[in-house]
Amino acid sequence: MMQKARDKLRELRALHDDGLLSEQEFEHRKNAILDAEYAPPGGAAASVPVRLGTELGFMTGQEIGPQNRRYRLERLIATGGMGQVWQATDLATHAELGSSEMVALKILPPQLTQSATHARLLIEEATQARKLAHENIVRVYEWAQDPATASYFIIMECLDGEDLEHYLAREGRLPLATVQELLHPVADALSYAWEKHKLVHRDIKPGNVFLTARGDVKLLDYGIASRVRNAGSSLGLETPNAGTQGYRPPEAGTHQRQPSPRLDVYAVAVMIYQMLEGRMPFDDARADGHLPSAPQALNAAQWQVLQNGFSLTPELRPQSVQALLESLERAAGPSPEELAELARQEQSRLVAQQKQAALAAEEARKEARRREEELEQRRKVEAQAAAVEKQRHDKLRREQEAQRAIEAEEARKLRKEALRGQLRARREADAATALQAHQELQRKAIQAKAEAAYRAEQERARKEQAKPVNPAASEAPPPQGAVVEPLVNAEGMLRDDFLDGSGQGPELVSIPSGRFQMGAHETEHQVAIKAGSQKTWLERETPQHWVGITQPFALARHPVSVGEWRAFVKATGWEGGAETDWDNPGFVQTDLHPVVGVSWKDAQLYIAWLTEKTGQAYRLPSEAEWEYACRAGTRTPFNVGDTISTEQANYDGLYVYNGGPRGSYRGGTSPQGAFAPNAWGLYDMHGNVWEWVQDIVHDNYEGAPVDGSAWEEGGDTGRRILRGGSWLYHPRYLRSALRNGFSIVLSNDIVGFRVARSLD
């Protein structure tokens, strides 16, 4: 323990030497570490209450977060008014659902979370920031609270590079073209956040603009942005002092109820001046009417645009940052050198035009004389030609009249023959329609007869069970097999009636027995790596091996829907965990959407209830059965080919796979039938929701069954396999061969399931 305290003190001293901690904060933290080391058990030090949201004790190597969402702090990236930013390693199973192992944690300062109302507001804003899916906005994954210190923190995308503040400190003044190139992505991100989600950033400054090592521009700290609220807002609360001194407009502290994008316009206008001149335009306390000197890089019109941008009157500013940048570009006009060149070119053009006009006039006079001579000669020739033409025309007219008479006769014969053909085709079509109608009536009669026989058999079985029995037989178990195999309907679907007549089970598709290669080959893996897949994920799909599905089985046509789950909840009184509310997961859904917020253990409860209601043996499919049914005879990465689009499945269409098209990001699940089924009639096998299967998680296929049965020996018994990808994930996670794993007791807004049934 003593050695651990020394290590903490050395780390604390390094932060102080690097200028990341003040002397007062250094002494405060040092005393806290020493008090914790030397305080006697149960002594006075133990009785001192822990400050809500305290940042004391956060050191490299420390693990924070709730028990099932742990993060290890690796290094302190930055510190400021919004707290500390750490690079951390995600140690929880959430990393297996697509988040990178390396994330960034923003640990919020105590003053922002000591109030329950402020904490609630920050949680709401972090939840809203998760929906911001734009290439120029840093992605927010989740928020959490550390139970040991009660500190709130936000989990974000980890970036490699530097912020604009450090870039300006190194480069100094920037040319106008570079300023515009750096700020156009910022304008795109702000326009997206306002138009799609009505969010205003409210803290634009160089420290919140990040330049990645790849050359991308990312906007940070949307966690303090505020959604526009009406007068009847449930919270009715804004952050009056949001923003940073020097970049914050005067109206930001007036408790305005509807933040405007003009707040961000003011901050960006200040940044433009700072980037061009290498200094801020105003002191901390800006006096009314005071203006700085005009930047040398701007002309008078551009300087007026920039003055409007940081005007104290919001109505004088452009409506958006995009409008501010466009106004600067329009006001640029040509340079003096360009004006001189344009004048020289215009003078040359006028001289050339005058010479050309003189030559053209002389040529016109010559051409007029030549045309007069030609016209006279033409009159003579035309008079002779007219006489000849009249003779030819008279002869041609007589020949045409004779030809028209012949064509009229042939046309009459053709019309007569065509009429005969139409009558013959109509008789044949009427005969075919009558035959088809007769066959349809026969099919419906056969189906009605079969359904009547099925229901009669069910009624007979119920009556048989209701008959009194002798005492000796009353102790024996009830007869098995009282329900006959359900009939196949006109669409080829199986459907089991409930024994009590209160409803039916889900629609099932009969899957034939067969043989297929499970997993993926090296060529597919090479394409997946180019799309961003990690090798550790791809190793789970090896070795590729043959599997024989020896027995046919039935698989649900769709994942279990919200409506089907609602019937189960109503019948059993089931109450789920707290991770995700299945009835209100955070996006719009109907009874036809797939249910989410269901753990693997919850799925087992539903299957047991469905088996009891129908008398049939329902279960989760094995992993081999799921991949066999998903592929439906294909061997490509997806059952639709070598790539996929958002016209074929629900996933994050901002990302592409193997040259596929960029599509849409729906931000939630889609209802049944939104996309075409695969060749075997199964819907949503790619995307929408991850689907639970029966198998335990194993690192690869070494020792896996080859008969299609579930692999439930060895491995990580606390986790089960997920298949298919979801609405939140990149297309590389939708491949038929991809394997994922998740804790059997946790639920999520991207995980559902579909049921299977054995066929005797």
Describe the structure.
- There is one protein chain.
- With 760 residues, the chain is of the alpha+beta class.
- Helices cover 40% and strands 13% of the residues.
- It has helices spanning 2-17, 23-38, 110-113, 116-129, 164-171, 176-197, 262-277, 300-309, 321-332, 336-466, 471-474, 522-530, 535-538, 562-572, 600-614, 623-631, and strands at 63-64, 71-80, 83-90, 102-107, 140-145, 152-157, 161-163, 199-200, 209-212, 217-219, 226-227, 493-494, 508-511, 514-518, 545-549, 553-556, 618-619, 690-697, 716-723, 740-743, 751-752, 756-758.
- The strands form 6 sheets. The chain has a 6-stranded antiparallel β-sheet, with helices on one face.
- A hairpin with a 4-residue loop joins β9 (209-212) and β10 (217-219).
**Basic shape:** flat
Low-confidence runs: 39-56, 225-241, 469-487
Count of separate DSSP helical elements: 16
Gap between N and C termini:
64 Å
**Integer average pLDDT:** 83
What secondary-structure arrangement, pairings included, does this model have?
Elements: H1 2-17, H2 23-38, E1 63-64, E2 71-80, E3 83-90, E4 102-107, H3 110-113, H4 116-129, E5 140-145, E6 152-157, E7 161-163, H5 164-171, H6 176-197, E8 199-200, E9 209-212, E10 217-219, E11 226-227, H7 262-277, H8 300-309, H9 321-332, H10 336-466, H11 471-474, E12 493-494, E13 508-511, E14 514-518, H12 522-530, H13 535-538, E15 545-549, E16 553-556, H14 562-572, H15 600-614, E17 618-619, H16 623-631, E18 690-697, E19 716-723, E20 740-743, E21 751-752, E22 756-758
Parallel strand pairs: 18-21
Antiparallel strand pairs: 1-2, 2-3, 3-4, 4-6, 5-6, 7-9, 8-11, 9-10, 12-13, 13-16, 14-15, 16-22, 17-22, 18-19, 19-20
